Amino acid sequence: MPPNLTGYYRFVSQENMDNYLRALDINVVLRKLVCLLKPDKEIIHTGDHMVIRTITSLRDYVMDFDLGVQFEEDLGPVDGRKCQTTVSWEGDQLVCEQLGEKRNRGWRHWLEGDQLHLRMTAEDEVCIQVFQKVK
Q: Could you say which residues form the signal peptide (predicted)?
């Protein structure tokens, strides 16, 4: 049975965000700004339904979805694109595949103790973020 990810998580660290954003064709000014942000995550996980809020001082991004059901995701606040997104479990990892203009785009969340890990991919770039559960 997959873990329940419900909780509030504070930003701890990230690696390779600038190159990941460059792979998404984000302009240099926005890349520099995003690299300075320290986002929090709030996850509400109820059965096969999830809401993942990424919270920053600039703006929030909300994903509201049913596991295993493809939906059109509007990534306008991120990079101006739309993609066909499916989120499902692979063992204990929550895996998101985002089909669209960019190859190999997606992410995966998993827990290690009370830390939430996020691995984001686009093209050949990988960005890793770590968050600490606070409630």
A: none
Where are the alpha helices (H) located in the chain, listed in sequence order? 17-23, 28-36
Judged on CB neighbours under 10 Å (0-12, 13-18, 19+), 88 is middle
Q: How far apart are CA 17 and CA 36, in angstroms?
A: 10
User: Per the confidence metrics, is the pTM higher than 0.90?
Assistant: yes
2-28, pLDDT tens digit by residue? 899 999 999 999 999 999 999 999 999
57 secondary structure, DSSP code = S
> Considering just the CA atoms, what is the radius of gyration of the chain in Å?
14
Domain ranges within the chain, ordered by starting residue: 7-133
The answer to whether 131 and 41 are in contact (CB under 8 A) is yes
Q: What is the pLDDT of residues 31-70, one digit of tens each?
A: 999 999 999 999 999 999 999 999 998 888 999 999 999 9
The CA distances from residue 1 to 14, 64, 65, 89, in Å, are 28, 21, 19, 10
Q: What does CATH list as the number for 7-133?
A: 2.40.128.20
Could you give the CA distance from residue 21 to residue 25 in angstroms, rounded to a whole number? 6
